[in-house]
Amino acid sequence: MAYQPPGFFQRLRLLVIAFSAVVGLALLADAMLTRVDAAHVGIRVKLAGSTRGVQDIPVVTGWVFYNPLTEQIIAFPTSVQNVVWTASPHEGRSADESITFSSEEGVNVNSDIGLSFHIEPSLAPHLYLRFRQPDLLVLADGYVRNAVREAFNDVASRMAVQDIYGAKKGKLIADVGAKLREVLGKDGFIIDQITINGALRLPENVAQAINRAMEATQNAIQAENRVRQVRAEAEQAVAEAHGAAEAARQRAEGEADAVLIRARADARANEIIRLSTTGAVLQYRAVERWDGKLPTYQGSDKLPLLTFDLGRASVNDADREKKLEELLAEDKARDKSVPAPPPSSAPPAPETPAPASSQ
Question: Are 207 and 138 in contact, with CB atoms under 8 Å apart?
Answer without folding.
Answer: no
